[in-house]
Amino acid sequence: MKCCIIGLGVFGKNLARDLARLGADVLAIDRREDNVEQIKDEVGAAVVMEFDDPAPLAHFPIEEMDAVIIAIGNDFEHSMALTVKAQELGAKRIVCRVLSPMHERLLRLLKVDRLVVPEVVAARGLAHSLLMRGVVDGFDMGNGHSIIEASVPALLVGKSLTDSAKDFKKADVRIVTIKRIRKGVLGKLAKSPDTPVKRRTLGIVTMDEIFQADDIFVLFGPEKNLLLFLEKYSGA
Known about the structure:
By secondary structure, the protein is α/β, with parallel strands linked by helices. The chain contains 7 helices and 11 strands.
């Protein structure tokens, strides 16, 4: 997959890194040389381009990109101009960071494929983590449903899906997968006070998988059901 990211602020830079780690061929563009320098060794190509004139965007193979992401975070006019230029150059898919309600309205009129408000996504995740016991992250799926990451409820530790299937069914909550701490040599935890905990995703959870105390559940369901489920089985 080929992606072009225009705007390397905090959002654009992290998105470029994440896409590159997932195997995408990333072209990163920013008007600031220091932003380009910070990421040039982590992506396929990183270049400096002024945003005042979108015409130089034609020098890049925009029509070959599977997605063009306009990630500019503080300049309405430049974001709009580059979005229009990307459309003119035949971009297959355009994703734009939304800067204001008016910006969103104009982007919708341009029929941009996807609109993103990073602050809203972050706020929703924080709201989930503040209101639901043990939640470390969350994503609003719409219509009152969410996907959340939460520490395994204390009363489920040592059980399997076979043991607790009735509990999940009664709560109308689904377990998507489990994120488990990676083990080092001789079963020691692969972590130290100076490094973040590394986890692996188990994939589809088998019926006999035993839930461990350090597990992170990835759960899906109605938000109110998720809240009640975590409260009920937290053991507090």
